[in-house]
Amino acid sequence: MQVTERRALFALPVLLGAIACASPDETLPPVESDASPSADAGATMDSAAATDTAFDITGDAPARRDADGDVGARDGSVRVEVFTATDTPVTTDVQPMDVPVTTPPRSGGYYASTRAAHGIVDANLTSYEYAPAFVYYGGRYHYFACVGVRGDWIQHKSAATLAGLAAAPFRTVLSPSPGENHTCDPAVVRGADGRWYLHYSNTPGGTYTDAGVAVADRPEGPYTRITMDLLGHFSGLTAGQYGRGQTTVTLGPDGAWYMAFTNQIAPMEPNSIVILRSPDPSFANTRTEVARIDPAAIGGWSTQLSYDPPSGHFVFIEPAGAAGFLVTSFDTTFHRVAQETLALPPGAGVPGEGQAFLTDSDGHLLTTSPDANGSLVVVGATNGPARGGFPQWITGPNEWRTFRVDPVGVVDFVTPLPGGVRVAGWSYDPNDRGWSIETHIYLGTAAGTTPAGTNDGATRVPRPDVNAAEGTTGVHGFSVTIPTALRGAVEVCTAAINVGSGTSTWLACRTVTVAN
Predict the structure, then answer these.
(1) Is residue 63 pLDDT above 70, yes or no?
(2) Using CA atoms, how far apart are residues 470 and 180, in angstroms rounded to an integer?
(3) Domains of the chain
(4) What is the Cβ-side half-sphere exposure of residue 430, based on CA atoms within 13 angstroms?
């Protein structure tokens, strides 16, 4: 489902002007133009003629109304009742949009999600794979991993869909040069010059690790090495001394690039995760040390650094065995903010060494990729069978896991009244399934009238059917009557306002006829 901008009344620039008091979490993505969201994307914008289509809670194809005008229920879906317009005069105490909205503290996790799915990136039937990088760019998912070929080689595969990755072939993008016994731990970003920078680890002596960087015009290469000795060469290390490597890179909010790398050269220096800053994505010309982090604060050594613009935090992800993944957030001065666990989707493999978030080409967390719109994506190794003496934590299939973080919900009906409209439905945020999130409703005309926004506040109508079907707790229904001076064809767009990770969600856009 390709995200496109709705070019009628509620184009994004106009809409954002209507929510001047909104917090950063309330920024809405462009309205969807496809009325059939993907299975893991939840309910999104219905931009079709809205009176004959409604989404069920499974996020599958739209349910169609039966002869009585009701939406037919399917297994696992909430039955939607269609209400008839009445002649009741419009009266309401709805809070106008120019009144600031404050959200009280809430429980639950920022990244944790109760809606998760998984699938295969690569079956990994013959050797080992781990330490991936995962980038969505140019309409394709680009997957890089350390693969056992003749030692560690960095290989790449890509596909237009998550499901298509499993059958896509691996192709080598970097193999050891003379002086490099192995190449591993890829991290890939695109610089302002349009070129792709592949950061990696190598083992020139076979027992200690150096860092290198290579550059290419395309994500799939071919790559040309800039240096094989980016962070210093420590050839005198003994058992237990790793060296310097496992580099990961992301673009910070200040326009500078940030690198995290594993520094294990004690007693020469304390073992730590070191953070560097540079204006150059290669880090080969100039860099400044920013911080040193105890790996215990992250949960381990084999980690990935990303930046999350909605939260304003740098984020590390680390495998946590059968518990799932540890996600640790740091502010821009690299002081730890929070740590939480992403639980595994049912049936997913136990994470092995090396996990990565899906990012854009800047190394920013991405929740708007077409196959997982509204979801975080985590990829990486899983524990597998004993094979050739390789560690079992890198011999299982490499998997993707999606974690829905944008709100989901349904607009049950939009009913025209004399001088107004009535809107009802339900929504919740998978980051905190017990929290009552806010509902924003916008009224305008196809002729170009600036939409008037209404904040209905937190959901406050009990919906035991939703709780039973979705496994939620709390109160998740909304029902509001909104007066308007508009007459004739009025477009009514409803949004569920995000909490935690992700962005707000368009639930539906319906056109109704409002009379005097």
Answers:
(1) no
(2) 52
(3) 12-110+407-514 (no CATH), 116-404 (2.115.10.20)
(4) 28
